């Protein structure tokens, strides 16, 4: 759907609330990311979300999610003490953060699991996607997601990272694997790529289908230097770069069976993690060979001093972001002799469905040479 | 402190609120389990907890935690839109679940991390304990906590477990390790022993101090059969026993470097997990050799058919539970020729500080022969 058509549809939506309400398909089911046994929030096959929250003495409950993820949804109080309501329209496929405002205070929805975003644990909801099969939990061999605590002299603490090791890693003790260092976005942390992104299931499924050769993924916290959480204007790359390159990578190479060299090391990041990826890869051409920015900017040919050290540049975003910019940058890199690939996620914005799909597209391109 | 003295102190506390308020030490600090950067909730050196919640249009905010973990604390609304208040008295050392009631609706505290208990994700707070050093995050070699997804034919899904592997596991690929299967309590899940219990840090510290020989810990969900979450009256051991003994143990032995025999396999559980441990160990004498019930009942000598198969029986509880019952059962087992040990956690009740301490006492007794 192009932008003009989207605008026309939105106009129609807003001018015919009654018609729209009648057209909602009543096949609502609990969201994939609900707390165990919780019936609400629910989602339907069209992408609508429906909420139901118990707050008998409250005057107002509002959900931060609305049409297309924007605005909000005001819930209506029933005589049973529950507030309920449905989004005004369908939302983008995939994962969305949200919260409730209850009489002016911001709380999470007791029905939903929590996910770390915007520097806090927020409620999350999953809108079923037409392509959700690639991140479904299937009866295939599963890898492990291991929490490690690695020593960091530069920050004087033990820092946490998660390491995805593919199925087979624990069985064939002679195999060594390439490594992708994969960064979250602003306000998120090292839990995001598995909790929200389901990166481990994406990998398990790609490996089971024989679409990729197994590799390790390492995820750590990327907002290392901030004094006060979440102040991106204070962000400096130095402290994160030190933790990643001088501390984490040596720890990983010492504690996991990696192929510990530049040709077998990739870095990727979403949003702010893309900015970090660009800065760290350009400053460390002998450490990483494969670069990927997911909704996280672009490289220009002039950025890279030694073309021979770069095996892949992958640039992606959602169709509702800046697809032309991403495609143009990839084209210019290709014209300059780089192995560059662009990917645009259909009908998604700056959100995790874009990044899940990006990982699925990126993975088969890594470490193939 | 005996029960009589506790009662006297409680009476004094209730009759002299003003005196008590004056005696609160103003050394409040954010709880260890706060969300990143959040100033509240706070705890002081005496065990008081102080809360501060933004809800400008709310009429009432109550915290479920009160004196000694009982009752609740009603917060007072300030002109700045924040509700605040301090518990009426000090609470037991260690971890406590809690939630907020905001105008009649139950929500979590936006300042605190969430922990799975009572079949839902709840807020958690940590009261500093005099012995908190044994579960502190220290600059010692750390093991890994790995999430695995193992196939379960009996329940027709992939099930989740967490596996603690000790420091060194990933380096010396020739070593094999004994395994402790460690169960949570009612309404908790496989995340409890690390999130609330900090079992991985307890192990890392014990190993660093040379107090135990390294072993693996496996934690999975123990309320396998329930149709509706949290209905303990519907609990049957069969489905959990099948998952544990027929599916999980073979998977662990195939995917981790275990000593895969009865002498090197232990089972322990807290509360409901103790009940499960008792039932599963008695029904599977050729699978487990070391048994531990933490606030989870006792064994009688007559329960055990073949004494020679049991290497250790460990029974524990908090001093505010049933210490005499636990000690008496251990004595009777000892008199009957069993290697039995009892442990009573001082000044704690049916709560995680009891179980953290129990794990610390249990670990050095495991797999020593």
UniProtKB/TrEMBL annotation, chains A, B:
- The protein's name is Alpha/beta hydrolase-fold protein
- Any single Pfam family the record assigns to this protein: Esterase
For this UniProt record, give its keywords in alphabetical order, as a comma-separated list.
Hydrolase, Signal
Q: Record the organism.
A: Niabella yanshanensis
Q: Does the keyword Signal apply?
A: yes
Q: A single Gene Ontology molecular function, please?
A: hydrolase activity
InterPro entries in UniProt: AB_hydrolase_fold (IPR029058), Esterase-like (IPR000801), Ig-like_fold (IPR013783), Ig_E-set (IPR014756), Mycobacterial_A85_antigen (IPR050583)
User: Could you tell me the superkingdom of the organism this chain comes from?
Assistant: Bacteria
Record keywords: Ribosomal protein included? Answer: no
The signal peptide here is 1-21
């Amino acid at each position: 759907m192009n932008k003009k058509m989207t605008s026309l549809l939105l106009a129609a939506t807003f001018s015919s609330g009654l018609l729209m309400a009648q057209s909602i398909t009543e096949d609502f089911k609990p969201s994939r990311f609900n707390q165990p046994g919780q019936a609400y929030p629910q989602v339907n096959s069209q992408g609508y979300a429906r909420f139901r929250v118990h707050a008998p003495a409250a005057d107002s409950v509002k959900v931060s999610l609305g049409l297309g993820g924007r605005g909000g949804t005001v819930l209506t109080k029933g005589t049973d003490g529950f507030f309920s309501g449905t989004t005004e329209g369908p939302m983008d496929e995939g994962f969305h953060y949200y919260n409730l405002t209850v009489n002016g205070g911001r709380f999470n929805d007791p029905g939903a699991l929590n996910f770390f975003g915007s520097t806090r644990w927020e409620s999350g909801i999953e809108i079923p996607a037409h392509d959700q099969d690639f991140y479904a939990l299937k009866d295939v061999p599963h890898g492990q997601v291991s929490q490690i605590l690695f020593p960091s002299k530069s920050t004087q603490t033990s820092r946490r990272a998660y390491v995805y090791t593919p199925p087979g890693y624990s069985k064939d003790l002679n195999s060594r694997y390439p490594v992708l260092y994969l960064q979250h976005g602003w306000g998120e942390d090292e839990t995001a790529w598995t909790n929200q992104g389901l990166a481990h299931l994406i990998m398990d499924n790609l490996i089971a289908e024989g679409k990729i050769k197994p590799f390790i993924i390492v995820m750590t916290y990327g907002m290392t230097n901030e004094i006060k959480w979440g102040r991106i204007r204070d962000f400096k790359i130095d402290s994160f770069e030190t933790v990643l390159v001088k501390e984490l990578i040596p720890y990983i190479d010492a504690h996991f069976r990696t192929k510990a060299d530049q040709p077998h090391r990739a870095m990727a990041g979403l949003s702010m993690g893309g900015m970090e990826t660009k800065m760290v890869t350009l400053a460390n051409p002998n450490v990483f060979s494969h670069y990927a920015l997911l909704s996280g900017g672009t490289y220009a040919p002039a950025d890279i001093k030694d073309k021979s050290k770069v095996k892949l540049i992958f640039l992606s975003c959602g169709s509702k972001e800046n697809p032309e910019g991403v495609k143009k940058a990839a084209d210019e890199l290709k014209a300059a002799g780089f192995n560059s690939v662009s990917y645009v996620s259909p009908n998604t914005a700056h959100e995790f469905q874009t990044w899940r799909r990006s990982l699925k597209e990126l993975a088969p391109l890594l470490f193939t040479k």
